[in-house]
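Hi again,

Forgot to attach this to my earlier email, sorry! This is the prediction with protoporphyrin IX containing FE bound. I've pasted everything inline since the attachment limit keeps bouncing my files.
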Amino acid sequence: MNSTLRFALFLSLLVFIPALPLHATPLEKKMKVMKQATKDLKADLIEASQPDKTENLKHVAKLREAAVAAGALEPAKTADIPEAKRAAFVADYKKSIEHLVAEIDELAELISAGKWDAARKQMSVLNQSRRDGHKEFMRERE
Ligand code: HEM
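Structure tokens for the complex follow:
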């Protein structure tokens, strides 16, 4: 293969780089932190017979911080919404994230009070908000 051909091949490969999943949006990065925090929470709340309050509150704080940061960003799908409806779409998204943050605060209160069964139930509430949020605000996967 001569060097011109090799260079042309290299350039054509560059075209595909933005399509790789490595290029997570800033929002996806925050969401991934939220995913890890919920995983850590579930592991301790569900599997441990005596959950660790301090550890769980640390996970909740991490979850809350990432959720608040996510609320300052906009979904990638915003670009697909007709311009006239875009502001309302973003406002709805922000309201849904605020709602999630309120649910996270409830979870923190339940953990602080050592109400473990109620805390486990609250995890299902958060999970439902995740599902609803993704249905409404996440781009469909191609
Ligand atoms: C605890 C709750 C949540 C978790 C753990 C979570 C987790 C995730 C994860 C892991 C992704 C990356 C894509 C994937 O792998 O599926 C993602 C993407 C996304 N999530 Fe969430 N999510 C939560 C709640 C929400 C809520 C409530 C909303 C909306 C109000 C939302 C909106 C989005 C959007 C829009 C994306 C796509 C990223 C983009 O547009 O740039 N998520 N989420």
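The mean pLDDT is 91. The chain is about 75% helix and 0% strand.

That should be everything now.

G.
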